[in-house]
Design brief:
The chain is of the alpha/beta class. The chain folds into two domains: about 120 residues, NAD(P)-binding Rossmann-like Domain (Rossmann fold, 3-Layer(aba) Sandwich), CATH 3.40.50; about 160 residues, 2-Layer Sandwich (Dihydrodipicolinate Reductase, domain 2). The protein is about 30% helix and about 25% strand. It is built from eleven helices and 14 strands. The strands form two sheets. The chain has a seven-stranded parallel β-sheet. A seven-stranded mixed β-sheet has the order 9-10-8-11-14-13-12. Helix 2 links the parallel strand 2 and strand 3. The longest helix is centred in the C-terminal third of the chain and has 16 residues. The chain binds NADP nicotinamide-adenine-dinucleotide phosphate (NAP). NADP nicotinamide-adenine-dinucleotide phosphate (NAP) binds next to helix 1 and helix 11.
Length: about 350
């Protein structure tokens, strides 16, 4: 028996399935409810074949059970509408959507379709522990980050934490992301015949995750996302143009300084073998971020790479990691496992 009870609203979805997988193996959590409006009474294994054998059936989200932690894995807009019900049901709410990631109503007006509960924005904490660990302790409303934003922030954060950049520099980010980002009902663009073989720029400008990156790093980024033929994974390549000279030593100092003690970050920067830079395939199914960099010989450009699993470090894994921090548990509880190798296109 775990010490804490948990529920997953939106349990049939892709990130809901990942939450159920993680919480089912978590030593401190018992999953007592997973909701679905379309599959009520079906077993969780009906939607998630990897979870066959888990003794849990979907129930209606109108009948929320009282739990310690409620994870909401629902589309944008649902949590802000139902936050009162969620908070009545649980002491801690971890939302995987974009509903509570940004700080102000004006940002939601600019990047989304406004916000119905703007007074709660000041209370919510961004879930990425590498960025916001201190504020997560004891938090009761937590917003898990966007996957493309998470990959980008993980890549660039050390350069700001260690003053290699001051925010005035030009930063160009190109993210390649897998089809599971679109969720279980991904639609035409993510259907197999349409997705297969593509390297499709789907958000050349104006991607909503730009708002999160700018909010947390304090920079203007030129941000573009490509849909590629992966199922899992987000790979960010960030071209950074520093104002003055930067050495390899400066970069190692910054990245080691930020990430040496982080349990879920691997520095992969050069070295030998086939996988010399961050690779989404290597972290598929795990809560790890691989981060690496290279210095252009001209000394005028730093290239930063970051690879995550969009549904894990980019969503469900980050959410469970943040809940661990919020509750004062061992941060790695339920998340401390390696990925697979070799593996097919994840
Ligand atoms: N996929 C990713 O890689 C990823 C990464 C980062 C963040 N996110 C965010 O995480 C959230 C979930 O994403 P996903 O990819 O898991 O989506 P998904 O696969 O489409 O799943 C959505 C889930 O929400 C339920 N749902 C839909 N409308 C609802 C409502 N009004 N009330 C209650 N439940 C409702 C659906 O089940 P029923 O219709 O049966 O109730 C389903 O279980 C989204 O906000 C997404 O932006 C996703």
């Amino acid at each position: 028996m775990g010490e804490y009870t948990a529920s997953v609203v939106g349990g049939t979805g892709f990130t809901g399935g990942e939450l159920l997988r993680l919480l089912n193996g978590h030593p401190e959590f018992d999953v007592v409810q997973a909701t679905s409006r379309s599959k009520a009474n079906k077993t969780v294994g009906h939607s998630h074949p990897n979870l066959r054998g888990m003794d849990l059936r979907f129930s209606d989200p109108d009948d929320l059970e009282s739990v310690d932690v409620l994870f909401a894995a629902t589309p944008h807009g649902v949590s802000m509408e139902q936050i009162d019900e969620f908070q009545d049901a649980a002491g801690t709410v971890v939302d995987l959507s974009a509903d509570f990631r940004l700080d102000t109503e004006a940002q939601y007006d600019e990047w989304y379709d406004g916000h119905t509960r703007p007074e709660l924005l000041a209370e919510s904490e961004y879930a990425l522990p590498e960025l916001n660990r201190e504020n997560l302790e004891g938090a009761d409303l937590i917003a898990s980050g966007g996957c493309n934003a998470t990959a980008t922030i993980m890549g660039l954060l050390p350069l700001f934490e260690h003053d290699v950049l001051d925010g005035s520099e030009q930063v160009v980010v190109d993210v390649k992301v897998g089809s599971s980002e679109g969720g279980a009902g991904g639609g035409e663009a993510s259907s197999h015949p349409e997705r297969s073989g593509v390297v499709r720029p789907y958000a050349p400008t104006g991607h909503r995750h730009e708002a999160e990156i700018e909010q947390f790093l304090g920079i203007d980024v030129s941000f573009t996302v490509h849909a590629v033929e992966m199922i899992r994974g987000a790979s960010a390549t960030c071209h950074v143009f520093p104002n003055g000279p930067v050495s390899k030593g400066d970069l190692w100092k910054a990245y080691r300084g930020s990430y040496e003690d982080e349990p879920f970050v691997e520095l992969v920067a050069g070295g030998g073998g086939v996988y010399r830079y961050p690779e989404p395939k290597a972290v598929a199914g795990t809560n790890k971020a691989e981060v690496g960099f290279e210095l252009d010989p001209s000394n005028k450009r730093v290239v930063v790479f970051s690879a995550i699993d969009n549904m894990m470090k980019g969503s469900a894994g980050q959410a469970v990691h943040a809940a661990n921090v919020a509750l004062g548990l061992d941060e790695t509880a339920g998340l401390d496992f390696q990925g697979l190798h070799p593996v097919g296109a994840p």
